[in-house]
Design a protein that fits this description.
624 residues; alpha+beta; 5 domains; four-stranded antiparallel β-sheet; two-stranded antiparallel sheet; 30 helices; 6% strand; elongated; Tn7 transposition protein D; TniQ
């Protein structure tokens, strides 16, 4: 049993605590230290996921307050590696770390199957080392610095360096403490491009979030569904779950860059169908390294809080209930439809929604909805239902005209005729055409078809006057029923009295880009305002960052030329590297003033996370 045990420092890895015990115990033999710690000389010194924790706790001094759970969750890499494991496997890893069966740990976490390997040497942050020396009188190994893929200190935003201490030493029983003699900052500093540097910071900060939070454990399928839902929204997958593999991989590589992916051991071969990125989405039971989960979630713009806690669904038609478009019902246009089935059109490449109301009315439309008005349009009626048919019978009995009946039912006259015949109804307008006739001044008689023709012609003329700039296709979209009647019954007149086909630039009539521009501009301004007014650490304002937050990065990057107002605003607010560094400096000044710190240039630059070589960009006036 030990007579003392070092107090673990903030974010200190357990290996480091035990190494400090060895130094203070005065033991000359590492096996003697093992005997003190675990009551055995056969235990291996492991940095990331050690076992035999129960034996360690049992050998601690009397009245020790440390428990197995505290040591594992606060001073090992267990929270990081278990974050994406299913509940039962997390429990198995935890029990293995408590007990003596450490050999199964790496297999259960999926580390063995991953191509991401442990760091060869313990890493250290030079600024942390100086602070630790001042505060504690000694250095120690920080947990977050030892995570593979973490190359930047998330606290100070400076590069990490390799120490002289191997993670897996020549003596497997040796605990080697951090010290000024083995944590030597190299003469040549590591330099990254600004883009790579920013991405490395975000990755390190997310890794630290995993270490310091105990998120609910989910099954592997949960994360696949989360990613797939966001990919559907971003256009990387169909609503049926088919992933556009090449598009996804290409965009992923473009976002991070091959240099960055190689640094974090996560390169992706665009020509290879079996790569880790596609495995994360398709393979059901295969675990992925946490770093790769962080890379994919960042690329898709999913926050860690949402990834773990908020069930994501792709809703191309928004949230229900949806309006019933049955003009014959007493709930016409009211949100009473709860039955929606979404399919994928292989022709149009768009999702198709089938909306079924309890009144029997069933209609479809293509998505996704671009505006609130889209909810009140349909592409095709699949079934009218008993309510609509009963209304038709009622109107026929009232002896209303054909066009008035059609208007009240929200359809064209031919549809009314078709369903009247189907239901075996004797209609007023048919009787009238057989017995009556009306004559003009020249003695010409008009049948009901002639009356209908005049009515629909006048309606088409009114529509053209109302929208003089629109072409035939756009007018058709406004009143599809009117166009359909004229096309079937008066096509020659329709062709002669329609706008000439434009031979210039083809306009995409599927999307009202002007309306979309106005809607997106409002959303973009809200996001920018939040980014500028946030009390947290500044985030660079770029088209990609704004698009990721809104889930429309692909739209902004590919079709910004169709959104002139949004483009002009983005051009006015997006930040250059210099602009962003200046905003970080001003943020750092405010933070230091809040804490009552003396404003010194090195403190400001450190808090802002700006490297030494950039300090000459700014004058005293800039900082003030």
């Amino acid at each position: 049993m030990m007579t003392f045990f070092p107090v673990p420092y903030e974010d200190e890895v357990l290996y480091s605590v035990l190494a400090r015990y060895h130094v203070r115990s005065g033991n000359t033999s590492y096996k003697a230290t093992m005997k003190d710690l675990f009551g055995s000389t056969s235990v291996t010194a492991v940095m990331d996921l050690p076992s035999n924790i129960q034996n360690l706790v049992n050998n601690m001094p009397l009245n020790s307050r440390y428990t197995e759970e505290y040591l594992i969750k606060s001073h090992t890499l267990f929270p990081f590696y278990s974050a994406f494991l299913p509940p039962e496997r997390t429990e198995q890893v935890f029990e293995s770390m408590i007990g003596e069966n450490g050999g199964s740990i790496y297999g259960r976490t999926g580390i063995m199957a991953s191509s991401i390997t442990l760091n060869h040497y313990f890493k250290f942050c030079p600024v942390c080392a100086k602070e630790d020396k001042l505060q504690y009188g000694e250095l120690y190994w920080h947990r977050v610095h030892q995570i593979p893929g973490v190359l930047i200190c998330p606290k100070h935003h400076v590069s990490l360096y390799d120490s002289n201490v191997p993670v897996r030493g020549y003596n497997k029983h040796e605990y080697k403490a951090a010290g000024e003699e083995n944590c030597v900052e190299p003469d040549i500093a590591v330099k990254y491009s600004d883009d790579v540097f920013e991405k490395l910071i975000r990755l390190a900060e997310d890794a630290q979030v995993l270490l310091n939070n105990d998120f609910d454990k989910r099954n592997i399928e949960w994360y696949k569904e989360q990613y797939l839902a966001k990919m559907m929204k971003m256009g990387f997958a169909t609503v049926n779950g088919k992933v556009y593999r090449k598009r996804l991989i290409k965009e992923f590589i473009n976002y991070y860059g091959e240099e960055f992916l190689d640094m974090v051991q996560s390169s992706v071969d665009v020509d290879n169908d079996s790569n880790w990125l596609m495995d994360m989405i398709r393979k059901k039971n295969k675990t992925a390294h946490p770093i790769r989960h962080l890379l994919l979630s960042q690329f898709l713009g999913i926050s860690l809080q949402d990834l773990f806690n908020k069930k994501m669904e792709y809703k191309p038609f928004g949230d229900g209930p949806w309006p019933c478009l049955n003009a014959a019902s007493d709930h016409y246009l009211k949100p009473v439809v709860y039955d929606l089935k979404v399919s994928y059109s292989t022709d149009s490449k768009y999702p198709v929604g089938t909306f079924s109301c309890t009144c029997g009315f069933v209609y479809t439309r293509s998505g996704p909805d671009e505006s609130e008005d889209a909810r009140y349009r349909f592409g095709r009626i699949k079934a009218f239902g008993t309510v609509w048919e009963e209304k038709l019978k009622e109107l026929v009995n009232q002896k209303l005209s054909l066009r008035e009946t059609a208007r009240l039912l929200g359809v064209d006259a031919n549809t009314v005729k078709k369903y009247a015949r189907k239901l075996g109804l004797t209609t007023y307008w048919e009787k009238r055409s057989e017995t009556d006739s009306e004559c003009d001044n020249d003695g010409n008689s008009y049948s009901s078809m002639n009356l209908d023709r005049n009515y629909y012609r006048e309606k088409w003329k009114e529509l053209r006057k109302q929208y003089p700039e629109m072409g035939k296709t756009q007018l058709r979209q406004i009143d599809n029923a009117l166009f359909a009647w004229l096309y079937r019954n008066d096509r020659e007149w329709l062709n002669q009295n329609s706008p000439l086909k434009k031979t210039t630039n083809i306009i995409n009539s599927r999307v009202d880009w002007d309306q979309r521009d106005n809607e997106i501009l409002i959303q973009v301004k809200e996001v920018v305002a939040k980014m500028l007014n946030s009390d947290g650490k500044p985030e660079r304002i770029t088209i990609s960052s704004i698009g990721s937050k809104l889930g429309i990065r692909g739209l902004l990057e590919k079709h910004l030329d169709k959104l002139p107002k949004t483009k002009a605003y983005l051009d006015s607010v997006k930040e250059t590297n210099h602009d962003f560094r200046l905003r970080r400096i001003r943020w750092a000044v405010k933070e230091l003033e809040k804490e009552g710190e003396v404003l010194q240039l090195w403190k400001i630059m450190r808090r802002a996370g700006i490297r030494e070589e950039y300090k000459f960009e700014f004058s005293k006036r800039d900082i003030e």
